[in-house]
Write a structure and sequence with these properties.
By secondary structure, the protein is α+β, with helices and mostly antiparallel strands. The protein is built from six helices and ten strands, in the order ββββααββββααββαα. The longest helix is centred in the middle third of the chain and has 24 residues. It is elongated and about 90 Å long.
Length: 218
């Protein structure tokens, strides 16, 4: 919202609320005196009304707990109650947005929220991440497969970004950093694991099974 612009909500309707007048609380924040269709009056923040966080005093459930339709606060269409997600925060137990509008609202805000996360966590923007992926030709630098679930990889000590990996390789790399000798054991396992199992199966008679040192010696 542009600073300095003051909205007058007097006379406007939000759900079952009718805004009567503006009031000022002790903290200096503006509230609006509203009256519900049932007659209940209450002071509410303007943001609660405009964002659909409050659409009645709670009388909707008491008046019509089994209503079959509801009007979406975004598209203003009246739809079957099943077209609204359940919500414990709402007086009638349903979200103020229909399912279609709820999905659209969530999707429209995701890029901005993720960009904020990248800036705070890694010091890069969403555009920077896309640039890195383009430089990698859309592939994970470890498995050389397409990045279906790209994850930013960074040095846990310096916090510097090293690249963008697929989720599986990022998890594997994190395990290696926690235990570098796992690489040696993994290579030894791949090279000799089958032989070791054959040795185990050949000693079913109870004879001693040769021990294996999984650390690779080159």
């Amino acid at each position: 919202m542009v600073s300095g612009i003051k909205l007058d909500l007097t006379g406007k309707r939000f759900g079952r609320w009718l805004v009567l007048s503006k009031v000022l609380n002790k903290g200096g924040q503006s509230r609006w005196l509203c009256q519900c269709d049932c007659g209940t009056k209450r002071d509410l923040f303007g943001s609660y009304l405009s964002r659909g966080r409050s659409e009645s005093c709670g009388c909707i459930r008491r008046i019509d707990p089994n209503r079959s339709e509801k009007k979406c606060s975004r598209c203003q269409e009246t739809k079957p109650i099943a077209e609204f997600f359940r919500s414990k925060r709402r007086a009638d137990g349903r979200d103020v947005y229909c399912k279609r509008c709820k999905v659209e609202v969530n999707r429209s805000g995701q890029p901005a929220r993720y960009d904020w996360h990248l800036r705070k966590q890694f010091g890069i923007t969403l555009a920077d991440k896309d640039l890195i992926i383009t430089d990698q030709k859309g592939q994970c630098p470890l498995c050389r497969r397409g990045l279906s679930s790209p994850v930013v990889d960074h040095d846990h000590i310096t916090n510097e970004v090293r690249g963008v990996l697929c989720r599986n390789c990022n998890t594997w790399l994190g395990a290696i950093e926690a235990d570098p000798e796992r690489v040696d054991r993994t290579l030894k396992y791949l090279l000799t694991g089958a032989d070791h199992v054959r040795g185990i199966l050949s000693h079913k008679d109870g004879s001693d099974i040769p021990k294996v040192d999984w650390k690779l010696t080159l």
